Task: inverse folding
């Protein structure tokens, strides 16, 4: 179940990156309009699923640290980057122009997730 939550969280994370990629590639907007409209909902769902994934991986069945493996540190650091991205987005949601720090944290998060998965 932990791995399934991890893969679902990865798919949700990649779906939150689609608006960023689509803005750079400039394809037809109708194809990606779902992801533009629901970016915030997908990001919050990603945060929730990955929080459950991390808690179950750390807690395991017998208590704190029992289910932890060698990739625990990379997972905790990646989760902290997710938390920072969500916090920056919630603070800067009403600002115009949107601060670039959110995008930079998301780029950092992409590389942290690659390290964690590989």
Result:
């Amino acid at each position: 179940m932990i791995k399934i939550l991890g893969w679902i969280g990865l798919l949700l994370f990649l779906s939150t990156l689609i608006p960023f990629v689509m803005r750079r590639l400039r394809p037809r907007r109708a194809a990606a309009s779902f992801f533009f409209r629901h970016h915030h909902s997908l990001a919050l769902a990603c945060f929730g699923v990955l929080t459950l994934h991390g808690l179950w991986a750390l807690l395991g069945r017998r208590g704190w640290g029992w289910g932890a493996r060698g990739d625990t540190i990379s997972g905790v650091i990646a989760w902290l980057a997710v938390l920072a991205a969500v916090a920056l987005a919630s603070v800067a949601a009403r600002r115009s122009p949107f601060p670039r720090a959110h995008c930079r944290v998301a780029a950092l998060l992409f590389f942290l997730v690659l390290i964690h998965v590989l």
Q: What stands out?
A: The chain has a mean pLDDT of 80. The chain is about 75% helix and 0% strand.
